[in-house]
């Protein structure tokens, strides 16, 4: 057997040779070679170059997609289709501590129904807050269809702040849609039911006692919350209300909600009755509800509403008498209703009709003004003539569902579910312009800012229900498929397939990325779920553990790389609350916190204060630690919860035996001095260039200065111990000094790389 050292050498030579061969093959491979090797066409390359976002570059648009049955929101970028975030909304989300810390548990508790926790949601329609009909990038709303709820997300930190339960429905679908200045968030019922809570009414009384409705949730923009006391609903017939949209510009003050099953059919296969799907599609038309919400709000303010379950409801009789509610026939089992950017026209697609019907707001108003009604529905609501209300009807294809608008005037896009196509058409002149096949069975579609007053065009995303053969198989449950389409040219071009494996994302909204202004840190001590100062907040050096009876409250801090306190001693049966404040100011320096087996977790972003609470019901030893790999010594960011048994007697600890000597101390100090030389050279480079022109570097320098300040404190403690020849503590404090140096060096090197990559220039100083 050859000696080890020789063997090692020959292995190294072999490795070098192999690497050399591969290296030259890479160098020789041209674009053509890659195309051939991977079987890519010119068209593929064109598509790739339209979606590829090089490393370090960012997307032009940010998408907020419903997470479907996951009860969350998915955030991704366009054109790259890179997923950026999942926002926990109706469902616990462990990474963000959502549902595992006390603050977010309170948000989720807002979604309890009859005292019951509901830990999932069927999210359908996200909506961005608007100012004058345009997205302002401040807030996001989304509905839960299964359990009629609505959530508010603040886009300063992308966190869910509030969940409200609809007080009178049992399901809802036509939400969230906002009015042009986000005065109200619209939410329409879906499956009719008695409005009064827990009231039993047999299906035989469907026509008389089951009801639908539309709710207008009052949004208080200053508070960033919905105000239930100022919200109201309008009672509607038991037609299954479906989607809604708010009027804008000329039609501001009005809202439109369509319906299916205006037959009011009640199924019952088990009783030999034809199923709902037959009875609910028998008639040729259903009803578009046209509502004057501005006047409705005034009527509520005048006290004309009645209270149902403590909620303001305008009865149908009042709505009819006051002239704020009208119906217009719409063909046949309609789905989407979408107001044009100028507010003049309303597009309705009928699932079982090959046409889209474009209604004219002007024509609708003319009939209402003239009091010219075709008939009344069984509840006495005036019905306008469909013919007299239509601007045009356009035959698009099979199964039209939803419509979005382009930046080009009069251009719209409608999804065709049965045909698996997107149709581009002109709604002013009523003609089809182009069609593209998608894969497969499209539901909603989305253009950039496509339901605002000023759509931005460029891209369209088809939200497809079935993926079938598009991706590598992963079992019978397939991902959903979002397809990115370029709409900036005469012919639409399919660019990219993105699998979404989190639930069925019904709808999505895309906003210009520059409109969003999210923060990077909280004001120190913020409760992020209330945006108010957290009572559990403490500053560095003020950490404490307070006991009141059997309640133990910890007021602690986290910073690279330690948790203060590092030991928490309690008695079995104590109720423990741990408040933690992240003292970091650096971007992206999030710490996590968990305690073994107590099912708690917190994500503590810079400045945030979070609390976790649990009953220490089992004696024992429970490590706690930071769950984010936050620095080189992240694993050491640890501590112990000691749960002492009943009647436990303290043992007196013997004096700690010193293990470090003066030699250890000297060695550590030498390391520190060498490290300081590295830091000084990095600092020398940074200050020799125009680093102040790069805000991210300025904040890195702030952070590094912070760390070096702490290094100084540790060094002082070291010197004090050394003076007393306490080599044990002197060595440990020298080590702590070094820890802060390492963190500062890490930050400094990051700043240096950034400056080099961004072409920083010598200042000649
Ligand atoms: Cu068409 Cu709920 Cu908007 Cu699904 S809905 S597709
Ligand atoms: Cu903080 Cu790991």
Helix and strand topology:
Layout: H1 4-28, H2 31-38, H3 42-51, E1 61-66, E2 72-78, E3 83-88, H4 102-109, E4 127-131, E5 134-144, E6 149-154, E7 159-165, E8 177-178, E9 184-188, H5 206-209, E10 212-220, E11 225-226, E12 232-236, E13 240-246, E14 254-260, H6 276-279, E15 285-292, H7 293-301, E16 306-308, E17 311-314, H8 316-321, E18 325-331, E19 334-339, E20 345-350, E21 355-360, H9 361-370, E22 375-376, E23 382-383, H10 386-389, E24 390-395, E25 400-405, E26 411-416, E27 421-426, E28 431-437, E29 442-448, E30 457-464, E31 480-486, E32 493-500, E33 508-512, E34 526-527, E35 532-533, E36 544-548, E37 551-559, E38 562-564, E39 567-571, E40 575-582, E41 591-595, E42 601-604, E43 609-615, E44 620-625, E45 638-644, H11 662-688, H12 695-723, H13 727-757
Parallel strand pairs: 12-17, 37-40, 39-45
Antiparallel strand pairs: 1-2, 1-33, 2-3, 4-5, 5-6, 6-7, 8-9, 9-10, 10-11, 10-12, 13-14, 14-15, 15-18, 16-17, 19-20, 20-21, 21-24, 22-23, 25-26, 26-27, 27-28, 29-30, 30-31, 31-32, 34-35, 36-37, 37-38, 40-43, 41-42, 41-44, 44-45
Helix pairs in contact: 11-13, 12-13
Sulfanyl-(tricuprio-$l^{4}-sulfanyl)copper is lined by residues 124-125, 173, 243, 335, 401-402, 443-444, 506-507.
């Amino acid at each position: 057997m050859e000696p080890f050292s020789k063997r090692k050498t020959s292995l190294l030579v072999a490795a070098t040779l192999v690497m050399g061969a591969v290296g030259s093959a890479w160098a020789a491979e041209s674009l053509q070679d890659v195309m051939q090797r991977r079987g890519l066409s010119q068209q593929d390359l064109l598509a790739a170059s339209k979606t590829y976002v090089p490393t370090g570059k960012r997307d032009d648009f940010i998408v907020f997609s419903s997470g479907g049955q996951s009860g969350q929101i998915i955030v991704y970028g366009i054109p790259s289709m890179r997923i950026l975030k999942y926002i926990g909304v109706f469902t616990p989300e462990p990474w963000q501590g959502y549902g595992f810390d006390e603050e977010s548990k309170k948000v989720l508790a807002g979604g309890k129904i009859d005292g019951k926790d509901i830990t999932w949601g069927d999210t359908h329609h996200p909506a961005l807050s608007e100012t004058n009909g345009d997205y302002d990038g401040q807030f996001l709303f989304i509905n839960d269809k299964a359990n009629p709820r609505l959530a508010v997300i603040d886009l300063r930190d992308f966190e869910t702040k509030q969940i409200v339960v609809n007080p009178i429905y049992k399901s809802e679908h036509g939400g969230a849609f906002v009015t042009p200045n986000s005065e109200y968030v619209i939410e329409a019922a879906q499956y009719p039911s008695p409005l009064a809570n827990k009231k039993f009414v047999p299906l035989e009384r469907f026509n008389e006692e089951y009801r639908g409705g539309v709710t207008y949730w009052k949004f208080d923009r200053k508070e960033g919350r919905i105000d239930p006391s100022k919200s109201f609903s309008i009672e509607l017939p038991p037609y299954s209300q479906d989607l809604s949209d708010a009027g804008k510009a000329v039609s501001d003050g009005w809202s439109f909600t369509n319906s299916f099953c205006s037959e009011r059919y009640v199924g019952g296969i088990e009783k030999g009755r034809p199923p709902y799907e037959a009875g609910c599609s028998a008639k040729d038309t259903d009803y578009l509800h046209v509502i004057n919400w501005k006047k409705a709000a005034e009527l509520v303010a005048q006290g004309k509403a009645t209270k149902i379950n403590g909620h303001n409801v305008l009865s149908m009789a009042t709505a009819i008498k006051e002239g704020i509610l009208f119906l217009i026939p719409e063909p046949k089992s309609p789905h989407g209703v979408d107001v044009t950017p100028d507010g003049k026209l309303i597009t309705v697609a009928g699932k079982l009709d090959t046409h889209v019907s474009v209604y004219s707001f002007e024509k609708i108003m003319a009939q209402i003004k003239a009091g010219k009604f075709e008939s009344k529905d069984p509840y006495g609501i005036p019905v306008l003539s469909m013919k007299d209300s239509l601007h045009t009807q356009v035959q698009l294809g099979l199964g039209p569902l939803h419509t979005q608008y382009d930046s080009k005037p009069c251009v719209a896009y409608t999804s065709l579910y049965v045909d698996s196509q997107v149709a581009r058409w002109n709604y002013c002149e009523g003609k089809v312009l182009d069609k593209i096949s998608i894969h497969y069975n499209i539901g909603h579609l989305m253009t950039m800012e496509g339901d605002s007053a000023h759509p931005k065009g460029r891209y369209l995303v088809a939200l497809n229900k079935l993926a079938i053969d598009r991706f590598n198989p992963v079992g019978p449950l397939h991902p959903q498929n979002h397809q990115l389409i370029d709409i900036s040219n005469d012919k639409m071009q399919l660019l990219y397939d993105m699998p979404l494996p989190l639930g069925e994302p019904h709808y999505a909204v895309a906003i210009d990325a520059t409109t969003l202004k999210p923060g990077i840190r909280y004001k120190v001590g913020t409760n992020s779920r209330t945006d108010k100062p957290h009572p559990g907040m403490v500053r560095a050096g003020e950490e404490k553990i307070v006991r009141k009876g059997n309640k133990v409250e910890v007021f602690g801090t986290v910073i690279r790389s330690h948790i203060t306190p590092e030991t928490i001693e309690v008695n079995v049966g104590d109720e423990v609350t741990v408040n933690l404040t992240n003292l970091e100011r650096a971007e992206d320096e999030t710490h996590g916190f968990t305690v073994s087996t107590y099912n708690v977790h917190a994500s503590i972003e810079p400045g945030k204060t979070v609390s976790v609470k649990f009953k220490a019901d089992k004696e024992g030893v429970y490590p706690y630690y930071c769950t984010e790999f936050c620095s080189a010594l992240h694993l050491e960011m640890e501590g112990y919860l000691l749960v002492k048994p009943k009647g436990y007697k303290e043992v007196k600890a013997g004096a700690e035996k010193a293990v470090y000597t003066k030699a250890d101390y000297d060695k550590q100090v030498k390391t520190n001095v060498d490290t300081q030389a590295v830091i000084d050279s990095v600092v020398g480079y940074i200050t020799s260039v125009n680093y102040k022109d790069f805000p991210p570097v300025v904040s890195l320098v702030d952070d590094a200065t912070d760390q070096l300040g702490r290094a100084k404190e540790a060094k002082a403690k070291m010197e004090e111990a050394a003076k007393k020849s306490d080599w044990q503590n002197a060595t440990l404090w020298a080590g702590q000094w070094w820890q802060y140096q390492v963190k500062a060096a890490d930050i400094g090197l990051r700043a240096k790389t950034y400056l080099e990559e961004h072409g920083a220039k010598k200042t000649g100083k």
